[in-house]
Amino acid sequence: MVSRRWFPTPREQLVFVVITVVLALSLWTSHRIHWKTRLGTGGWSLTSRRHATSDVFNSTLGFERVFAIGLPERSDKRDALTLMAALTGFKLSWINGVAGESVPNKALPFGWDRPAMPETNLGSWRGHINAMRHIVASGLTSALVMEDDMDWDTHLKSQLSDFASAATSLQEGFYHNQSLASPSPYGQHWDMLWIGSCATTFDEHLPLDLQLPEDQQDSRKMLIANDVTVPPGTHITGNASFSWTEYAPQTRIVYVPGDNICSFAYALSAAGARKALQYMGLEGQHKAFDNHLSDLCRLRVNGMRCVSVVPSLFVHHRPRGRVSRDSDISGGDGSKDDVREVGFTENVLYSTRLNLQNLVRGMEPERQWED
């Protein structure tokens, strides 16, 4: 009996080649995002290249709307933020900020000590609550909320794509009794994505959290490796509880937040906006808005499920000019003060604000730091 040798058909050869290429690409990208727990690290994959068609790259950054909160009279900030958003490919809608003096005593949140707290803090609280109420009243599935003095990297959408992959993976440890009403590139089981803050303390570094039962502690992290938009370690600030020497250069950390400071930018799902409005608006307020927002996440009030990132993707910009113009919460009226000759933004390597002239000319953005 003569045996016959098998020769693949051209179609079978093509299928084999395609499968080989797909497997090779998967292995090639596997170094980009890694899972980190108390037990160490393990391999994980997914990169922005695999999300090139994701909704993260649309005109609202993968959310239904993008809002900026700002006082109407700060036209300088609106000019800057509007131009920055246009040049980096997304659309902003504005929510008017509130002067604290305009909030009557009858509308004060329970526990607010008006004589002891600055009126600007009260106005900040009311402006953010108005944003939350608008999300709820409009029935939005999700929205990103930022303050009007923000800056971000010119590569924001690619950063958000990597963040979306890591954030989705972290949600595997959340309870899944509430899913987003519509598909989100950031996962289906989140209430808040806190992507703009100025200081970070991880859960495992908070004494109060360490006293909780272990099943109530959550120190999980995802490490985004080889992120070329992460500044050199000497130029990263705001890591309140750890040193960047513990991590490889060009590492960005996505984590379940312990204690964050500064409400620079955060996204809320429909359920998240309702939970936040109930706690932040109706349950009382006896501290600054960002501290209370941190409690909302850290204490998991109303079952709140939060994800954060460091270095943050949105950071307060300090422009050239009078220093007192920086903030509408702290500082004077901007009429007299020290003058800053060169503007800067912490933790953002390719600053959109500092590259505005390059971007409007169609030129490549420049780094803030070369070391």
UniProtKB/TrEMBL annotation:
Keyword Glycosyltransferase annotated: yes
GO-annotated molecular function: transferase activity
Keyword terms, alphabetized: Glycosyltransferase, Transferase
Family: Belongs to the glycosyltransferase 25 family.
Protein name: Uu.00g083780.m01.CDS01
Organism of origin: Anthostomella pinea
